[in-house]
Amino acid sequence: MRFTKFLMAAGAVALLSAPAVAQQPPIKVGVLHSLSGTMAISETTLKDTVLMLIDAQNKKGGLLGRKLEAVVVDPASNWPLFAEKARELIQVQKVDVVFGCWTSVSRKSVLPVFKELNSLLFYPVQYEGEESQRNVFYTGAAPNQQAIPAVEYLMSKDGGEAKRWVLLGTDYVYPRTTNKILRAFLHSKGVTDADIMENYTPFGHSDWQSIVASVKKFAGEGKKTAVVSTINGDANVPFYKELGNQGIKAQDIPTVAFSVGEEELAGIDTKPLVGHLAAWNYFQSVKNPVNEAFIKQWHAFIKSDKRVTNDPMEAHVIGFQMWVQAVEQAGTTNVDAVRQAMYGQKVKAPGGFDSVMNTNHHLSKPVMIGEVQGNGQFQIVWQTKGPIKADAWSPFIPENKDKHADWTYPWVCESCTKPTYN
Amino acid sequence: MMRPVLRALAIFLSCLLLAATPRGAMAQDPFTAALAGLSGDFSEKIEAIEKLAALGDGRAVPLLQALGDGALLVRESDKRLAIERDKTAFDALTGESLGPADQGFETARVNNRVRGVIRGALGRLQLVSPDRAQRLAAAVGVLKTRAADNLPLLEQALAQETDADVRALLQTALAATQLLSDKPETRRAGAQALAGSSDPDVRAMLVQERQSAANDPQLTAALDAAIKSIDDRLVLFNLIQTIFQGLSLGSVLLLAAMGLAITFGVMGVINMAHGEMVMLGAYATFVTQQLFRAYLPPGAAEYSILASIPAAFAVTGALGILLERGMIRFLYGRPLETLLMTWGLSMILQQAVRSLFGPTNREVASPSWMAGALQLSDAITITANRVWIIVFGLLVLGVIVLVTRATTYGLHMRAVTQNRAIASTMGIRTGWVDALTFGLGSGIAGMAGVALSQLDNVSPNLGQGYIIDSFMVVVFGGVGNLWGTLVGSFLLGIVNKFLEPYSGAVLGKIFVLVAIIVFIQRRPRGLFALRGRAVEV
Description:
heterodimer, A: 422 residues, alpha/beta, Rossmann fold, 2 domains, 7-stranded mixed β-sheet, globular, B: 2 domains
């Protein structure tokens, strides 16, 4: 009797201690998205996306036998605060990886912190390129995966053979750099400066009357005119309202936008805007099983089937999945080991193709052009046959000649013309 | 007596006709053959639409309209075309119901290029339609998608057209199409006829022809003359348009600043939370609209915006009174503390709204009577919602002037502003007058929010964009003077709009700001100086 009791007790202890041994500290994942201020409209959704992904991973049993734990901070759309919060995440909270940032100016603000503390940032938004940091993985589009194909589309027969170009943007680094690249590209296609109009407005600009009127006037020169919009954030809503009110039809002057997705259209009546375009690497309307599962998962997590999905969310899905695979492959969350394991990671993306992480820290992704529909969704009117590899340095800018971004042997550099080791 | 006999005869004859048509002929009929292309890819669609337009068969009209509106369905099993109405598919030709639209059907896709071709085709098909609106749309369609082979059609339509507006448009379309003719004299006639136009689109067409007409001196002369005459007219129209835009921007500034003209101008409270009152007013509009949608018949939501004006006033006014009694009255005469406190308050209000309604924009739908544009001439488009907002801004100003000039409360308010001590000895409860005045200012800010919900994003940050401008207008116009606010806001609006085309939006704002700073140096009390408590401090 006594012996069996002893055995039972030993068994119980063993049973209890087995999980206790496996109960290692959780892997911490930092989430660095503005939950207040001007960018909250776009970034809050991304925070929810990361939480959803962590939740799903934990339900699958975590990572390396450890649970994942999200550490959410709010940098409040305040660019210097981004750097402080990044430092807090890495030094105080000791997170193993950070998913975050939206605007280029917030990314630029955190770069030195990630470099100094050697941590990893996954940046999910399309941006102006001209960068390839060792501590950042860029899961959004570079200009050659968004801006250039969109302009090429508008030049094609289906896009209306545009000959005159209006470049509208918000006044900060992303639109100005993108437009610099676009102007160089248009020059290479024989478009003269007389046929290009550039205009910048402040963040949150709300009175678009005179700008829309001047676009109309610019279009009255007998050549097919198209608008390329790098307007960011809130200002898009009054801009599109004004386009609709002034009766600018997409058949006459199409507008292609690089920062307007399903989420931004959620606040507008899109019926007057049918036919205006957006270029992304993903639309909610993409039809494939991976995307259907993603949308379903999102609706279940956010407990509303009215919420939309968009391109930066997809970028986080890809980035998170790649990071998980890289950690599993490396068997550790050590930054240097994970970075090595990241190269060549492949993920079946909701956008419908295998996305691959390249050694320049950018993805290969398909490019899609969508037309706005009356229900606030996009209908894809053109897409590349397969994924396009991102150029960190745009070949259309003369100074970028021969610049190379590659973090593997023998190159190992952000921008060099010769391999560092040879 | 004759009628029933005739009818019977007619029915009999039509039956005969139907029976005489062999079934097989239906399939080869060019109309049906062309229809098949509508289920193909973009270029097949374009080919099919062009064929349908050339056939001139009126049956194609509803089909093409549906295709353009994204309501044309293709049955996946047999490529049968159907039109979607109320989520049900109806056969495109016979109109018989084919069941729910989301089962077994796919929407026929179009892109901008196809939409353009549809517009041209519908134009051709509807030029002689009995419906005036359709003829107008058709004339625009034919004008925008010019094709030389439309000429005889246009001449014919013009010959039988009686409506003056449609005639004018048809004449423009005819002249614009004549430009494409291969006969030099027809082209010249077209150019001469278009000289009377003031439509920027027509100007674009002329410029386009000008580029390809180098070898015909007479034609180039005619084109140049036409372009010049349009340009001369456009200068005037552009001026009118810019002034209107300035007035519109001015009315927005006026609405945003009026509440502040009272709380800051009259009472001297540096109210940094003023923008948040505007924002709360916009959210009140949103909530009212949601309530209308939820509890009242569908048509009523069109007028929810009218109901939201008093609602916004009540909500923000009550909050204003609460704030004045609860906090601000303890800080009179301490501007720095007031500034810091109201600033903190603005952040609390923003975050409260963000937690309550979420960080994303809320959609306040524009009622149809406020949407769209008034086309005063081809060159001047005045958007309807802005006209309403100008009217609303002036109305609100009128009401405030009435309240302050013609009511006992207004008298008390002015008395307290001018001399608090004496007003108090005359038996005026100055504390309550302060509270009501702050409430009035906040309430007006709330009403501004109703108007701004039509122009700007309804988001927690809405107020942030207006606080600086509001202070600028009030200081520029003269602290404490409503007329100063009126003149100041319209002046700033117009100056801004005249500067914008030359300097861009960012630089334009800087210029205006610098100009105001210089102006304030010369006249520290603004355009219209006023005596009052603000002067005493």
